[in-house]
Amino acid sequence: MTNNEMATANGANPLLPKTRELANKLGQFLAEDGMVETPIKRVHVIRNNSTTDIIHLVHEPAVCIVAQGRKRVMLGEEVYLYGPLHYLVISVDLPLAGQVIEASADEPYLCLRLDLNPQEISELMLAEHMLAEQQSSLPKTLSRQTQRGMYLSEADSSLLDAAVRLMSLLDTPRDIAALAPLIIREIQYRLLQSNQGDMLRQIALSESHAQQIANVIRVLKSDYQKSLSIDELARVACMSTSSLHAHFKSITAMSPLQYQKQLRLQEARRMLLNDQVDAATAGHRVGYESPSQFSREYSRLFGLPPVRDMERLRANNYVLQGA
């Protein structure tokens, strides 16, 4: 049991009023199910009035702060469970599966999502380094071990206070242009200063293993239809093939080819749902030469063959969301 959970169990967690305040702000902004970008760029509100089926997506770098309800997110075989008093950080593009497991009309799932900006994080790190030099103190040392590109952590009062102040700007739109960038900068600073902030630091360093893997991910996303060899990807990463496999799996919990397969299948599912194409066409467009192989791998990931999966999604008014 975490510190926040023990305090909540004892009825003495001082952060609960802040989470309720944040939940009120989020609920006032979005009354219906879905994910909506606010007038503050890069800031989204996610709401679910009931539990959901598993939702698949490729999630871009973001921090998701849950104010109410609970969710389960899967990265490969790993499962992350979180709710109020927790936040989830995704530092590189990752194929995820998520499911709201606690929500109701009276107490909906409510989440604040802020898309992260690696350039801003680099600037914060530079400012931190300059301050350390002025104070004649050593900057924070990075862990040498490549870390997972997603982590779950406990929220603290500073982070929750900044999140509430950010959402409060929606009540005074004239203040957004001047104050929102400052609060977003503060939130990213708080993430860097947390005890799990090393992965954000690594992804912002141009010569880190994390940044090299991020370059490979960009190639996989842009050329997911092509059959890219491991040797080609290793050259992109400036690594040996064995190092590429090790660091890629450490960050994404899967191999490069498994990652590409998820990209292909998720894009094919989007085509089937939004573009009204048939399964053979969708499979071919994302790089599958064999319709039967596409159907098998589609069923393995999503639980049903393409046609039946589309029937289920449309019956349930499937909506793509963030974490």
Summary, kept brief:
The chain contains 13 helices and ten strands.
Please tell me about this protein's structure:
The protein is globular and about 55 Å long. The two termini are 22 Å apart. The longest helix has 20 residues, at 256-275. The protein has 13 helices and ten strands. It has helices spanning 3-9, 16-29, 118-134, 157-168, 176-193, 198-203, 209-222, 230-237, 241-252, 256-275, 279-285, 291-302, 306-315, and strands at residues 34-37, 43-48, 55-59, 62-68, 70-75, 78-82, 86-90, 94-102, 109-115, 150-154. The protein is of the alpha+beta class and 323 residues long. Helix 2 packs parallel to helix 4, helix 3 (118-134) crosses helix 5 (176-193) and helix 7 (209-222) packs parallel to helix 10 (256-275). Helix content is 49%, strand content 18%. A hairpin with a 5-residue loop joins strand 1 (34-37) and strand 2.
Keywords for this entry:
323 residues, 13 helices, 49% helix
What's the overall geometry?
globular
Q: Summarize the biggest pleated sheet.
A: 6 strands, antiparallel
Query: How many H/I helical runs?
Result: 13
> What is the residue-averaged pLDDT?
88
Structural class: alpha+beta
Percentage of residues in strands: 15-25%
Strand order of the largest sheet: 1-2-9-4-7-10
Return Rg in Å: 21 Å
Distance between the termini: 22 Å
Percent range of helical residues = 40-55%
What's the total number of strands?
A: 10
- The H-and-E topology, N to C, reads as HHEEEEEEEEEHEHHHHHHHHHH
List unreliable stretches of 5+ residues. none
